[in-house]
Amino acid sequence: MKTTILILLIQPVILGAQTWVDFIQQPIRTTQQHAQRVIPVDIDFDGDVDLITSYSLTDEVVLEINNGNSNWQMIPVGSNVVAMFALPADFDGDGDLDIVAVGLFDRNTGFNTEGEVIWYEQNGAINNWVPHSIDTNIIHPRYLDVADIDNDGDMDFAVVSSGQDNNGQGFGNVAVWYENTSNGTVWTRWTIVSNLTNPESIRIGNVDNDNTPDILIGEYGGGRVLWYASENNPKKNNWAEHIISSNLTTPSSAQFYDMDGDNNLDVVAVFDLPGVITWFEHPANLVNAWAQHTISSSVNEPVEFTRGDFNNDGLLDFALGSFNKGYMAVLENQAEGNYAIHSHPYFSFTSIESADIDGDGDKDLITSSYDGNRIDWWNNSHLVPDVIYQNGFEE
Q1: Cβ distance 270 to 250 under 8 Å?
Q2: Contact 60/77 with Cβ under 8 angstroms?
Q3: β-pair type (24-29, 276-281)
Q4: Under DSSP, is residue 360 helix (H, G, I), strand (E, B) or coil?
Q5: CB of 297 closer than 8 Å to CB of 274
Q6: 253: buried, middle or exposed (CB in 10 Å: 19+, 13-18, 0-12)?
Q7: SS3 labels along 343-368
Q8: pTM (2 decimals)?
Q9: For residue 267, how many other CB atoms are within 10 A of its CB?
Q10: pLDDT tens by residue, 10-60
Q11: Please, are residues 81 and 101 in contact by the beta-carbon 8 Å criterion?
Protein backbone atom coordinates (compact mmCIF):
# COMPACT_ATOMS: atom_id res chain seq x y z
CA MET A 1 0.00 0.00 0.00
CA LYS A 2 1.32 3.40 -0.96
CA THR A 3 1.63 5.87 1.92
CA THR A 4 1.42 9.61 1.37
CA ILE A 5 3.27 11.80 3.86
CA LEU A 6 2.01 15.37 4.14
CA ILE A 7 4.64 17.88 5.26
CA LEU A 8 3.23 21.13 6.61
CA LEU A 9 5.56 24.07 6.16
CA ILE A 10 4.91 26.60 8.85
CA GLN A 11 5.96 30.14 8.03
CA PRO A 12 6.84 32.56 10.82
CA VAL A 13 5.20 35.95 10.85
CA ILE A 14 7.13 38.81 12.42
CA LEU A 15 4.91 41.35 14.12
CA GLY A 16 6.77 44.65 14.23
CA ALA A 17 6.12 47.82 16.15
CA GLN A 18 3.14 49.79 14.86
CA THR A 19 3.66 53.15 16.57
CA TRP A 20 6.69 55.24 17.40
CA VAL A 21 7.89 55.32 21.02
CA ASP A 22 10.42 57.96 22.01
CA PHE A 23 13.83 56.99 23.36
CA ILE A 24 14.46 57.72 27.04
CA GLN A 25 17.68 59.60 27.85
CA GLN A 26 19.84 57.99 30.55
CA PRO A 27 23.01 59.80 31.77
CA ILE A 28 26.23 57.81 32.04
CA ARG A 29 28.88 60.42 32.83
CA THR A 30 28.76 64.20 33.37
CA THR A 31 32.08 64.81 35.15
CA GLN A 32 34.61 64.80 32.29
CA GLN A 33 35.06 67.71 29.88
CA HIS A 34 34.50 67.98 26.12
CA ALA A 35 33.30 64.52 25.14
CA GLN A 36 34.21 64.02 21.49
CA ARG A 37 33.35 60.41 20.76
CA VAL A 38 31.80 57.36 22.40
CA ILE A 39 32.28 53.86 20.96
CA PRO A 40 30.40 50.72 22.11
CA VAL A 41 32.42 47.51 22.61
CA ASP A 42 32.41 44.52 24.93
CA ILE A 43 35.93 45.24 26.17
CA ASP A 44 35.88 42.66 28.98
CA PHE A 45 34.13 39.88 27.01
CA ASP A 46 31.37 39.46 29.60
CA GLY A 47 28.50 39.68 27.12
CA ASP A 48 27.34 43.24 27.67
CA VAL A 49 28.26 46.49 25.95
CA ASP A 50 30.90 48.77 27.45
CA LEU A 51 32.03 52.14 26.08
CA ILE A 52 35.26 53.84 25.04
CA THR A 53 35.04 57.61 25.39
CA SER A 54 37.39 60.36 24.19
CA TYR A 55 37.62 63.70 26.03
CA SER A 56 39.54 66.61 24.57
CA LEU A 57 39.68 69.03 27.52
CA THR A 58 40.34 66.64 30.37
CA ASP A 59 42.76 65.07 27.86
CA GLU A 60 41.93 61.42 28.34
CA VAL A 61 40.60 58.18 26.96
CA VAL A 62 38.40 56.31 29.44
CA LEU A 63 36.39 53.12 29.64
CA GLU A 64 32.87 52.93 30.94
CA ILE A 65 32.34 49.37 32.12
CA ASN A 66 28.71 48.27 32.00
CA ASN A 67 27.83 46.52 35.26
CA GLY A 68 24.09 46.55 34.56
CA ASN A 69 21.18 48.45 36.09
CA SER A 70 22.69 51.81 35.04
CA ASN A 71 25.80 51.01 37.08
CA TRP A 72 28.81 52.27 35.13
CA GLN A 73 32.41 52.00 36.31
CA MET A 74 34.84 54.53 34.84
CA ILE A 75 38.37 53.22 34.21
CA PRO A 76 41.14 55.54 32.93
CA VAL A 77 42.99 54.26 29.87
CA GLY A 78 45.29 57.15 28.93
CA SER A 79 45.82 60.77 29.87
CA ASN A 80 47.77 63.76 28.50
CA VAL A 81 46.27 63.30 25.03
CA VAL A 82 43.72 65.75 23.54
CA ALA A 83 41.58 62.77 22.66
CA MET A 84 39.28 63.00 19.64
CA PHE A 85 38.62 59.38 18.73
CA ALA A 86 39.53 55.96 20.11
CA LEU A 87 38.80 52.46 18.78
CA PRO A 88 39.43 48.90 20.00
CA ALA A 89 41.47 46.18 18.28
CA ASP A 90 43.92 43.46 19.24
CA PHE A 91 47.14 45.06 18.03
CA ASP A 92 49.61 42.76 19.78
CA GLY A 93 47.87 39.48 18.99
CA ASP A 94 47.46 38.35 22.60
CA GLY A 95 43.70 37.80 22.43
CA ASP A 96 42.47 40.84 24.34
CA LEU A 97 41.39 44.24 23.03
CA ASP A 98 43.77 47.18 22.96
CA ILE A 99 42.83 50.77 22.08
CA VAL A 100 44.19 53.18 19.47
CA ALA A 101 43.52 56.91 19.81
CA VAL A 102 44.25 60.24 18.15
CA GLY A 103 45.05 63.46 20.01
CA LEU A 104 44.29 66.68 18.14
CA PHE A 105 47.28 68.81 19.19
CA ASP A 106 50.04 69.19 21.76
CA ARG A 107 48.59 71.22 24.62
CA ASN A 108 52.08 72.30 25.68
CA THR A 109 52.86 73.98 22.36
CA GLY A 110 49.51 75.29 21.13
CA PHE A 111 46.50 74.52 18.97
CA ASN A 112 48.04 74.53 15.48
CA THR A 113 50.75 72.03 16.34
CA GLU A 114 51.36 68.33 15.94
CA GLY A 115 49.02 65.97 17.71
CA GLU A 116 49.62 62.35 18.58
CA VAL A 117 48.66 58.91 17.36
CA ILE A 118 48.95 56.43 20.23
CA TRP A 119 47.86 52.95 21.17
CA TYR A 120 47.21 51.58 24.63
CA GLU A 121 48.11 47.98 25.37
CA GLN A 122 45.78 46.09 27.66
CA ASN A 123 48.31 44.49 29.96
CA GLY A 124 46.51 41.54 31.49
CA ALA A 125 43.46 43.42 32.83
CA ILE A 126 41.07 46.17 31.83
CA ASN A 127 42.45 48.48 34.51
CA ASN A 128 46.08 48.12 33.38
CA TRP A 129 47.03 50.02 30.22
CA VAL A 130 50.48 50.69 28.76
CA PRO A 131 50.79 53.62 26.29
CA HIS A 132 52.81 53.27 23.07
CA SER A 133 53.26 56.43 21.01
CA ILE A 134 53.12 55.81 17.25
CA ASP A 135 53.33 59.26 15.62
CA THR A 136 53.84 62.80 16.95
CA ASN A 137 54.46 64.43 13.56
CA ILE A 138 50.95 64.80 12.20
CA ILE A 139 48.90 67.98 12.67
CA HIS A 140 45.34 67.64 13.97
CA PRO A 141 44.69 63.90 13.64
CA ARG A 142 40.94 63.74 14.09
CA TYR A 143 39.19 60.56 12.93
CA LEU A 144 40.29 56.94 12.52
CA ASP A 145 39.16 53.48 11.48
CA VAL A 146 40.64 50.04 12.15
CA ALA A 147 41.09 47.03 9.83
CA ASP A 148 43.69 44.58 8.56
CA ILE A 149 44.51 46.80 5.59
CA ASP A 150 47.33 44.69 4.12
CA ASN A 151 45.74 41.30 4.86
CA ASP A 152 48.71 40.00 6.83
CA GLY A 153 46.72 38.82 9.85
CA ASP A 154 47.25 41.75 12.22
CA MET A 155 45.30 44.95 12.79
CA ASP A 156 46.23 48.25 11.14
CA PHE A 157 44.37 51.56 11.13
CA ALA A 158 43.80 54.70 9.04
CA VAL A 159 43.69 58.36 10.15
CA VAL A 160 42.70 61.73 8.69
CA SER A 161 44.19 65.01 9.88
CA SER A 162 42.31 68.25 9.45
CA GLY A 163 44.75 71.12 9.78
CA GLN A 164 48.13 72.75 9.26
CA ASP A 165 50.39 74.87 11.44
CA ASN A 166 50.21 78.66 11.79
CA ASN A 167 52.32 79.08 8.65
CA GLY A 168 50.10 76.81 6.57
CA GLN A 169 52.79 74.16 6.61
CA GLY A 170 53.45 70.87 8.32
CA PHE A 171 52.15 67.36 7.78
CA GLY A 172 48.41 67.96 7.94
CA ASN A 173 45.25 67.77 5.84
CA VAL A 174 46.22 64.22 4.90
CA ALA A 175 44.90 60.68 5.05
CA VAL A 176 47.37 58.03 6.16
CA TRP A 177 47.40 54.45 7.30
CA TYR A 178 49.68 52.80 9.81
CA GLU A 179 51.05 49.35 9.03
CA ASN A 180 51.41 47.10 12.05
CA THR A 181 54.68 45.33 11.26
CA SER A 182 55.58 43.64 14.56
CA ASN A 183 52.69 43.09 17.01
CA GLY A 184 52.34 46.80 17.68
CA THR A 185 56.03 47.43 18.41
CA VAL A 186 56.90 48.81 14.96
CA TRP A 187 54.65 50.90 12.72
CA THR A 188 55.11 52.17 9.16
CA ARG A 189 53.13 55.22 8.01
CA TRP A 190 51.84 55.27 4.42
CA THR A 191 50.29 58.40 2.89
CA ILE A 192 47.03 57.68 1.10
CA VAL A 193 46.52 61.28 -0.01
CA SER A 194 47.88 64.70 0.90
CA ASN A 195 46.61 68.23 0.15
CA LEU A 196 43.07 67.59 1.36
CA THR A 197 41.00 70.45 2.77
CA ASN A 198 39.81 69.79 6.30
CA PRO A 199 38.74 66.13 6.00
CA GLU A 200 36.33 65.14 8.76
CA SER A 201 35.90 61.37 8.44
CA ILE A 202 37.63 58.22 7.20
CA ARG A 203 36.28 54.69 6.79
CA ILE A 204 37.79 51.42 5.56
CA GLY A 205 35.88 49.09 3.21
CA ASN A 206 36.31 47.09 0.02
CA VAL A 207 34.70 49.21 -2.71
CA ASP A 208 36.08 47.40 -5.75
CA ASN A 209 35.85 43.87 -4.28
CA ASP A 210 39.49 43.05 -4.81
CA ASN A 211 41.91 41.55 -2.28
CA THR A 212 42.57 44.64 -0.16
CA PRO A 213 40.29 47.29 1.38
CA ASP A 214 39.87 50.86 0.17
CA ILE A 215 39.37 54.19 1.95
CA LEU A 216 36.34 56.51 2.12
CA ILE A 217 36.79 60.18 3.07
CA GLY A 218 34.37 63.01 3.76
CA GLU A 219 36.29 66.17 2.87
CA TYR A 220 34.44 68.86 4.80
CA GLY A 221 36.40 71.89 3.53
CA GLY A 222 36.66 70.65 -0.04
CA GLY A 223 33.00 69.67 -0.34
CA ARG A 224 33.77 66.20 -1.68
CA VAL A 225 33.09 62.57 -0.80
CA LEU A 226 35.98 60.48 -2.11
CA TRP A 227 37.19 56.92 -2.20
CA TYR A 228 40.78 55.82 -2.64
CA ALA A 229 41.66 52.49 -4.23
CA SER A 230 44.37 50.36 -2.69
CA GLU A 231 44.50 48.34 -5.94
CA ASN A 232 45.81 45.24 -4.13
CA ASN A 233 48.88 47.23 -3.09
CA PRO A 234 48.21 49.32 0.02
CA LYS A 235 51.92 49.57 0.89
CA LYS A 236 52.45 52.62 -1.29
CA ASN A 237 51.91 56.36 -1.13
CA ASN A 238 49.33 58.26 -3.20
CA TRP A 239 46.45 55.88 -3.78
CA ALA A 240 44.18 56.27 -6.82
CA GLU A 241 41.49 58.91 -6.15
CA HIS A 242 37.83 58.58 -7.16
CA ILE A 243 35.15 61.23 -6.60
CA ILE A 244 31.74 60.07 -5.38
CA SER A 245 30.19 63.50 -4.81
CA SER A 246 31.24 67.13 -5.24
CA ASN A 247 27.89 68.90 -5.65
CA LEU A 248 26.98 69.20 -1.94
CA THR A 249 29.08 71.24 0.49
CA THR A 250 30.53 70.34 3.90
CA PRO A 251 30.26 66.55 4.18
CA SER A 252 30.85 66.01 7.90
CA SER A 253 30.63 62.22 7.89
CA ALA A 254 30.55 59.48 5.25
CA GLN A 255 30.09 55.78 5.95
CA PHE A 256 29.77 52.51 4.04
CA TYR A 257 26.43 50.67 4.01
CA ASP A 258 24.86 48.22 1.55
CA MET A 259 21.65 50.21 1.06
CA ASP A 260 20.12 48.19 -1.77
CA GLY A 261 21.11 44.65 -0.79
CA ASP A 262 23.26 43.95 -3.85
CA ASN A 263 26.35 43.03 -1.77
CA ASN A 264 28.24 46.13 -2.92
CA LEU A 265 29.19 48.95 -0.58
CA ASP A 266 27.11 52.06 -1.07
CA VAL A 267 27.92 55.30 0.75
CA VAL A 268 25.76 57.34 3.13
CA ALA A 269 26.84 60.89 3.98
CA VAL A 270 25.56 63.80 6.03
CA PHE A 271 26.19 67.34 4.78
CA ASP A 272 26.37 69.94 7.52
CA LEU A 273 25.40 73.32 6.06
CA PRO A 274 22.85 72.27 3.43
CA GLY A 275 21.26 70.00 6.05
CA VAL A 276 21.10 66.83 3.96
CA ILE A 277 21.53 63.11 4.51
CA THR A 278 21.83 61.15 1.29
CA TRP A 279 23.11 57.86 -0.06
CA PHE A 280 25.17 57.18 -3.14
CA GLU A 281 24.55 53.99 -5.05
CA HIS A 282 27.56 51.85 -5.93
CA PRO A 283 27.62 51.71 -9.74
CA ALA A 284 27.88 48.34 -11.44
CA ASN A 285 30.83 49.77 -13.32
CA LEU A 286 32.93 51.87 -10.98
CA VAL A 287 33.80 54.17 -13.86
CA ASN A 288 30.20 55.41 -13.88
CA ALA A 289 28.76 58.04 -11.55
CA TRP A 290 27.34 57.12 -8.13
CA ALA A 291 23.59 57.81 -8.30
CA GLN A 292 22.45 60.11 -5.51
CA HIS A 293 19.36 59.31 -3.40
CA THR A 294 18.23 61.86 -0.83
CA ILE A 295 17.10 60.42 2.49
CA SER A 296 16.18 63.79 4.00
CA SER A 297 16.89 67.42 3.19
CA SER A 298 15.25 68.62 6.42
CA VAL A 299 17.97 67.77 8.94
CA ASN A 300 19.51 70.88 10.44
CA GLU A 301 23.35 70.95 10.23
CA PRO A 302 23.99 67.23 10.91
CA VAL A 303 27.53 66.18 11.83
CA GLU A 304 27.39 62.44 12.62
CA PHE A 305 24.98 59.52 12.20
CA THR A 306 24.36 55.81 12.67
CA ARG A 307 21.96 53.27 11.18
CA GLY A 308 19.74 50.51 12.59
CA ASP A 309 16.21 49.15 12.87
CA PHE A 310 15.25 51.13 15.94
CA ASN A 311 11.53 50.33 16.09
CA ASN A 312 11.82 46.67 15.07
CA ASP A 313 9.59 46.92 12.02
CA GLY A 314 12.07 45.38 9.59
CA LEU A 315 13.05 48.73 8.06
CA LEU A 316 16.41 50.37 8.67
CA ASP A 317 16.28 53.82 10.24
CA PHE A 318 18.92 56.50 10.86
CA ALA A 319 19.91 58.47 13.94
CA LEU A 320 21.94 61.68 13.75
CA GLY A 321 22.62 64.95 15.50
CA SER A 322 23.94 68.49 15.23
CA PHE A 323 26.67 70.26 17.18
CA ASN A 324 25.57 73.81 16.33
CA LYS A 325 21.81 73.20 16.53
CA GLY A 326 21.97 71.02 19.62
CA TYR A 327 19.73 68.04 18.91
CA MET A 328 19.66 64.28 18.44
CA ALA A 329 17.09 62.89 16.01
CA VAL A 330 15.91 59.52 14.72
CA LEU A 331 14.75 59.27 11.11
CA GLU A 332 12.07 56.59 11.14
CA ASN A 333 11.93 54.67 7.87
CA GLN A 334 8.31 54.55 6.78
CA ALA A 335 9.13 52.80 3.49
CA GLU A 336 9.05 54.06 -0.09
CA GLY A 337 11.74 56.63 0.64
CA ASN A 338 9.80 58.39 3.41
CA TYR A 339 11.33 59.17 6.81
CA ALA A 340 9.64 60.72 9.83
CA ILE A 341 11.92 62.82 12.04
CA HIS A 342 11.75 62.39 15.84
CA SER A 343 13.96 65.05 17.42
CA HIS A 344 15.27 65.56 20.97
CA PRO A 345 17.20 68.57 22.34
CA TYR A 346 20.82 67.61 22.95
CA PHE A 347 23.24 70.45 23.63
CA SER A 348 26.55 70.48 21.74
CA PHE A 349 26.13 67.02 20.16
CA THR A 350 29.35 65.39 18.91
CA SER A 351 28.74 61.69 18.20
CA ILE A 352 26.19 58.88 18.08
CA GLU A 353 26.37 55.09 17.95
CA SER A 354 23.86 52.26 18.38
CA ALA A 355 24.11 49.10 20.50
CA ASP A 356 21.98 47.00 22.84
CA ILE A 357 23.07 48.60 26.10
CA ASP A 358 20.56 46.93 28.43
CA GLY A 359 20.53 43.50 26.80
CA ASP A 360 16.83 43.46 25.96
CA GLY A 361 17.30 42.67 22.28
CA ASP A 362 16.75 46.10 20.70
CA LYS A 363 19.09 48.84 19.51
CA ASP A 364 19.66 51.66 21.96
CA LEU A 365 21.58 54.87 21.17
CA ILE A 366 24.74 56.31 22.76
CA THR A 367 25.64 59.99 22.40
CA SER A 368 28.32 62.44 23.50
CA SER A 369 28.20 66.18 24.14
CA TYR A 370 31.12 68.62 23.90
CA ASP A 371 30.09 71.68 25.94
CA GLY A 372 27.54 69.61 27.80
CA ASN A 373 30.44 67.52 29.14
CA ARG A 374 28.44 64.32 29.08
CA ILE A 375 27.76 60.95 27.55
CA ASP A 376 24.31 59.33 27.59
CA TRP A 377 22.54 56.23 26.47
CA TRP A 378 19.01 56.40 25.12
CA ASN A 379 16.80 53.51 26.13
CA ASN A 380 14.84 52.07 23.23
CA SER A 381 11.35 51.28 24.55
CA HIS A 382 10.04 49.62 21.39
CA LEU A 383 8.91 46.07 21.93
CA VAL A 384 11.07 43.42 20.32
CA PRO A 385 8.61 41.51 18.09
CA ASP A 386 7.77 37.91 18.88
CA VAL A 387 7.86 35.18 16.26
CA ILE A 388 4.26 34.01 15.81
CA TYR A 389 3.66 30.82 13.88
CA GLN A 390 0.65 30.45 11.63
CA ASN A 391 -0.51 27.24 13.27
CA GLY A 392 -0.78 28.98 16.63
CA PHE A 393 2.33 27.43 18.20
CA GLU A 394 5.34 29.49 19.15
CA GLU A 395 8.77 27.90 18.77
Answers
A1: no
A2: yes
A3: unpaired
A4: coil
A5: yes
A6: buried
A7: EEECCCEEEEEEECCCCCCCCEEEEE
A8: 0.92
A9: 27
A10: 344 444 445 899 999 999 999 999 999 999 999 999 999 999 999 999 999
A11: yes
